[in-house]
Write a structure and sequence with these properties.
216 residues; mainly alpha; Rna Polymerase Sigma Factor, Chain: A; Arc Repressor Mutant, subunit A; 2 domains; 0% strand
Length: 216
C-alpha cells in the first residue's frame, strides 16, 4: 500500500475544512497518509489480512458518512481510529458479547502481575546487592547481528504482540508500533492514564520476555 508523509496539526485542520467542502483530493491525502497505520491496527485485532482490509474500507466509508457529525472535540486522527476500532470490534467480536475498551482496560490493569520471575533476583538476605539482578536481561545491542533489525527477531516480536490480551495488544501497537502519544491512546481507547501505563508496561514486559527467550 502506498504511503504519504504524515499529517501535522495545521494540515489536519486545513484538510478537515476541505473535506467538508467536498474536496476529493483532501480525502485522498488522508487515505494515503493513514491507511498503512489503520491497517496495522486493524490487523492486530481481526484474524486475517483480508478481514483487516475490509475493516479499513468500512472505516473510510464511516469517515465519509460521519463527517457532518464530527464536532472536532478530538483530532481527526483520533476520530478516524475510533471508527476503525469500532469496525474492528464489530468484525472481531461478532460471535461474542462486546465489552467496552474502558472495562477491558480496567480488568487487564487490575490484579497481580509479575514482569520477571522472582528467581531472576538475589534474595533479601543476600550478602551483597539484595533484591538486585541475579541473572540480568541480555542487552540487545550485544547480539552479534543487531537482533532488533533482524527480520526473524521482528517476527518474534510481532508474534508475541499477537498473543497479548486484546487491550494490551492495542495499547502496545498504538504506542510503540505507531508512535501515538499516551494522551491520544487514552482518548481513543477510553482508558485512564494510570490504566494505560499499566497495560503498556505489562505488554512490553511480555514482549521483552518472549524476545529474551528467543535471543538466549
Amino acid at each position: 500500500m502506498a504511503t504519504a508523509p504524515p499529517i501535522d496539526d495545521a494540515e489536519e485542520r486545513r484538510l478537515l475544512q476541505r473535506l467538508r467542502a467536498g474536496d476529493e483530493a483532501a480525502f485522498e491525502r488522508l487515505v494515503m497518509a493513514m491507511s498503512g497505520a489503520l491497517l496495522r491496527v486493524a490487523r492486530s485485532y481481526v484474524p486475517s489480512e483480508p478481514v483487516a482490509e475490509e475493516v479499513l474500507q468500512d472505516t473510510w466509508l464511516g469517515v465519509l458518512n460521519g463527517l457532518d457529525r464530527f464536532e472536532g472535540r478530538s483530532s481527526v486522527r483520533s476520530w478516524i481510529f475510533s471508527i476503525l476500532l469500532n469496525q474492528a470490534r464489530t468484525r472481531g467480536e461478532r460471535e461474542r458479547r462486546t465489552v467496552p475498551f474502558a472495562t477491558l482496560g480496567a480488568r487487564e490493569a487490575a490484579g497481580d502481575f509479575t514482569a520477571v520471575d522472582a528467581d531472576r533476583f538475589l534474595p533479601a538476605d543476600a550478602a551483597q546487592w539484595p533484591h538486585h539482578w541475579a541473572t540480568p536481561p541480555r542487552r540487545w545491542s550485544e547480539s552479534p547481528e543487531q537482533a532488533l533489525e533482524d527480520a526473524e527477531t521482528l517476527a518474534v516480536v510481532r508474534a508475541a504482540i499477537a498473543e497479548l490480551p486484546e487491550i494490551q495488544r492495542l495499547t502496545i501497537t498504538m504506542r510503540d508500533l505507531e508512535g501515538w502519544p499516551a494522551e491520544e491512546v487514552c482518548d481513543v481507547l477510553e482508558l485512564t492514564q494510570g490504566n494505560q501505563r499499566v497495560l503498556l508496561h505489562r505488554a512490553r514486559s511480555k514482549v521483552r520476555a518472549a524476545l529474551e527467550r528467543y535471543l538466549t
